[in-house]
Amino acid sequence: MRIAVTSQNFRTITGHAGKTRRFLILEADGRSEPIEIDRLDLQPNMSMHDYQGNDHPLFDLGLDVIITQSAGRGFTERMAQRGIQVHTTSLTDPRDAATTLAAGRPLPTAPAHTHAHEPVQLNVQNN
After folding, report:
1. Which residue range(s) make up the domain with 30?
2. Are 66 and 87 contacting, i.e. CB atoms less than 8 angstroms apart?
3. N or C: which end of the chain has fewer CB within 10 A?
4. Disordered: where is this region (predicted)?
């Protein structure tokens, strides 16, 4: 299984997959420790949020899965069109997450994804 993990620092799983520009690329078989086979370090204009072309470098890696801490619906749908599953998790260690997923076990749930530019509804009570 070929897995990309969103990792802005190349050490931990980070969130907001659509704006991520750095990915660890791992091979995992569910039996042994995942192996890092590549790193993707994209230019600022190449995040999936900013780049709308069909020739994005993520599409050329033969990915089965992307693991992230958060992803919006647009990102998830765009990956699904390419046959790439997106899994969100609260885990921070890329190898632990890849090991868990490749072994067929569910990842711990991540907090819900929200966009900073979406309005937040507040409940205010007047006394």
Report:
1. 2-102
2. yes
3. C
4. 108-127
Q: What is the mean pLDDT of each run of 10 residues along the chain (127 residues)?
A: 97 96 96 96 94 93 97 96 96 97 93 56 49
Identity of the amino acid at 106 = P
Amino acid at 38: D
- Supply 30's token pair: 């569910």
Into how many domains does the chain fold?
1
- Angstrom CA distances, 74 to 33, 54, 79, stand at 31, 14, 9
CA distance 114 to 106: 22
CA distance 104 to 90: 17
- CA dist., res. 75 & res. 117, Å (int): 16
